[in-house]
Design brief:
With 389 residues, the chain is of the alpha/beta class. The protein contains 14 helices and 18 strands. The strands form 3 sheets. Strands 1, 2, 3, 4, 5, 16, 17 and 18 form an 8-stranded mixed sheet that branches. Strands 8, 9, 10, 11, 12, 13, 14 and 15 form an 8-stranded parallel sheet that branches. Helix 12 (313-323) packs across helix 13 (328-342). The protein binds N-(iminomethyl)-L-glutamic acid and fe (iii) ion.
Length: 389
């Protein structure tokens, strides 16, 4: 088994909480990687000595858990640059654009979709993301959803079945039939490749009652629920997610006091996706209000061709800090440990013995630079399962 000691770390973010420091920060620290796991972390002066160890001198740089991006849609064909361009001259974002990507995805071959997925995987890794979720939702036929789930499972264990993304054009006059399909034949074709079931609970997509049916059907097939809710306006998505015990409700842009109270009293994570508001010129979600109420907040990219075509978690951190009232420490936690919690994972987003050896070394002395130096490529080295990329 290969072993690597990363030493001379100026600032190590462990996310092992201590009183007054949720990020469990160590200075002048070292981490020992053995195989694909972390074997030890602590003060550099206490680091284990062994001749067989490869040693990496961090040169005083900051090291932290790899980013956990708990919300992406990176299996699709085509793009919507024209729609983005129109939006920047005043055309508002509408969920209906999803149908254009559905048409392009259906037309794409498996090879083309696989080639693009591999490209997105490289892009995510290069920016420090070591765990990412991928949703279906641009196929919307039994065969297309199943192939998107199968292809996504080639690049991540975190596959989400999102047959309930929108009602496809061919079912627009028969939406009940489409919901039946999503809850039955399409679900049976996708469930073997997926861990999660998701629904876009929003005006223009699925009603709260339809959404409840979709989640319940997925759960009956062993999938765990998560929800797209309260993105484009107020609605029942958040309260439905909490009532169903969802791991996460994502977007949370338009929240009532009742929504915030429901989240605060639950184990459902509020996953904020500021790339959407950045790309659609909509108001950002109020992260401060959620954090002050005691809600667990995660940050994710929502990488998709319509509302947020970026895979950059450092950008999410910068936006969260500069536009959403989060401190740098809160944003870094939300992009690592928060994402892990949104995926109900205890082996990632943390630096402690037994966790996966998924780490990022920044070309910076502190994680604060992720927000302080927006747009600068600060990722120096990424270790994925103990291997430097
Ligand atoms: O998370 N909200 C629904 N789905 C995506 C947008 C998809 C698209 O516009 O293609 C989202 O923002
Ligand atoms: Fe999304």
């Amino acid at each position: 088994m290969t072993a690597t000691l990363i030493t001379n770390i100026g600032e190590l973010t462990t996310n092992v909480a201590r009183p007054g420091d949720a990020l469990g920060t160590l200075h002048e620290a070292a981490v020992l990687l053995e195989g694909d796991r972390i074997a030890w972390a602590g003060a550099a002066s206490d680091a284990p000595h062994a001749d067989a160890l490869g040693t990496v001198d961090a040169g005083g740089r900051a090291v932290m858990p790899g980013f956990v991006d708990s919300h992406t849609h990176v299996v699709f064909g085509g793009d919507r640059a024209d729609e983005f361009e129109a939006r920047m001259t005043g055309t508002p974002y509408a969920a209906g654009g999803i149908r254009r990507t559905v048409a392009a995805t259906r037309a794409a071959s498996d090879e083309e979709l696989r080639r693009r997925l591999k490209g997105f995987t490289r892009e995510l890794h290069a920016q420090g993301t070591t765990t990412f979720e991928v949703k279906t939702g641009y196929g919307l036929t039994v065969d297309d959803e199943a192939r998107l789930a199968r292809l996504a499972a080639e690049v991540t264990p975190e596959v989400t079945y999102l047959g309930a993304h929108v009602v496809p054009a061919e079912y627009s006059e028969r939406r009940d039939e489409y919901v039946d399909l999503v809850c039955d034949e399409m679900l049976r074709a996708c469930a073997p490749h997926a861990r999660w079931v998701d629904v876009f609970c929003e005006r223009g997509a699925f009603t709260p009652e339809e959404s409840r049916r979709v989640l319940a059907a997925g759960m009956a097939h062993g999938l765990l629920p998560r929800v797209h809710g309260n993105q484009l306006g107020p609605g029942e998505g958040v309260r439905l997610a909490v009532a169903m015990g969802a791991a996460s409700v994502d977007h949370c842009t338009y929240l009532s006091d009742d929504d915030v109270a429901a989240l605060a009293g639950s184990s459902t994570v509020a996953t904020l996706l500021p790339g959407v508001e950045f790309s659609t010129r909509q108001p950002y979600p109020d992260a401060r209000r959620l954090l002050d109420a005691g809600v667990t907040v995660a940050l994710a990219s929502d990488c998709n061709p319509g509302s947020s075509f970026t895979s950059s978690m450092p950008l999410m951190i910068a936006l969260a800090v500069r536009e959403m009232g989060m401190t740098p420490a809160e944003a870094v936690w939300a992009a690592t440990a928060g994402g892990a919690q949104a995926l109900r994972r205890t082996d990632v987003g943390v630096v402690r013995p037994g966790a996966r050896a998924d780490l990022v070394m920044l070309d910076a002395p502190t994680r604060v630079h992720l927000a302080y130096r927006p747009g600068v490529p600060l990722v120096h080295t990424v270790w994925l399962g103990g291997t430097p990329l």
